[in-house]
Amino acid sequence: MHPKEQRFKYRENIENGTTSGVCDGYLQANMISLPAKYAFEFLLFCHRNPKPCPVVDVLEAGQVVPRIADADIRTDLPKYRIYKNGDLERETYDLKDVWEDEFVTFLLGCSFTFEKALIEAGISLLHQEMKKVVPMYQTSISCEDAGSFKGEMVVSMRAIKKEELEETILITSKFPHAHGAPVHIGDPAEIGIQDFEQPDYGEFTPFNEDERIPVFWACGVTPQYVGLNAKPEIMITHAPGHMLITDQKE
Amino acid sequence: MHPKEQRFKYRENIENGTTSGVCDGYLQANMISLPAKYAFEFLLFCHRNPKPCPVVDVLEAGQVVPRIADADIRTDLPKYRIYKNGDLERETYDLKDVWEDEFVTFLLGCSFTFEKALIEAGISLLHQEMKKVVPMYQTSISCEDAGSFKGEMVVSMRAIKKEELEETILITSKFPHAHGAPVHIGDPAEIGIQDFEQPDYGEFTPFNEDERIPVFWACGVTPQYVGLNAKPEIMITHAPGHMLITDQKE
């Protein structure tokens, strides 16, 4: 199914589930909308931290149609989150009643894109095999700050077979628009992760330490986490796993 | 001489000439300062047009010390230009009396950086051999616009020996922070240049068309030209050829 048809289902609330595995082969994007007064500092934060915040499109104040999808971002994602002053207020299927002309929207690449490439290369991804949400962790890695946007990087972890490690690094480094190469390999304590079996987001994937090594990538939760640290009056994002399916092939 | 010592001379007005050939081996940068209300759209313009506008540093509102140089940008360039409402008002050696806390400053890479690499590879650059300012032209190549920032790309031209063309492309493509690979090779009319021997900026370098082919790169005049099109109340730039010498090695 072409993304436009799938997005129509979201627009009409015919479906509202996760976009994982939907319209395979098309780029999916994280979405963050903020009042225009935050736009410069947030774009600067993304510019300074391209691994966690790979910008694939920007919609200027009030714009609702991206360049990379013939879509309306207020309606065409399956589910959204609305945050007020840094706290989650509610989830919603439609943004038309909260939308303001001053909102600027950032669309960022996500790791679904490189996961597909890894699978196609025959690399084993435990969280997919176990049907779990990939584990994600807060770390002690400071991002470069920009104005009121600052904080530590959130990472995703995939335990990779030792013999597949080199190819995994090579493949993911070809996707700078989807987080790129890993930021850390090996001991989680070295990046400040205290309880490895209790991820901050997602679900742990137990693995055999003789066979696999943990590999960590910058994760798209980072800009949300950093965004909320700044406590904007309002911030709107996609709900986790409920992304914008674009018209661009991966 | 280390850049910090050279910048001290500019700060104290002991010297104020062109920075071409000065502190060889250190990155030099274009400077554009604008009131904060333009900052988001200008950063977005640079993000969308990385070849003419390769951002190497951004100073947030009121900041005067870059990350890439232990300098004060209000005093440490040899000469500046002040534009009001899109027109050149005056040149000056010091910005302290016009500086406002709301100014945001963008430092962009420049072609001095890749020229050095070409010379070191033994490639013949006519404008250097003839001691002329490199020729630059307005074109019909539209930049991607961002808010009020829009316009056509300005390019620089170097007539390269045919047998040196491939290496020239390879070398300059390694410098995305200094305009990167050429945007056009060959007939100037194809990019809307009407009077090839009368460049819009700089000086024409006559050449033998059997031996050399014109090669065009995105040029740092573009963001100034586009900036002025938007007619901001005030815009401050380095004076042509009078750059910020940074502490970063090329």
UniProtKB/TrEMBL annotation, chains A, B:
PANTHER family: D-GLUTAMATE CYCLASE, MITOCHONDRIAL. NCBIfam families: PRK05463.1 (NF003969). Pfam families: D-Glu_cyclase (PF07286). It comes from Guptibacillus hwajinpoensis. Keywords: Lyase. Belongs to the D-glutamate cyclase family. This is Uncharacterized protein YcsI (UPF0317 family). The keyword Lyase applies.
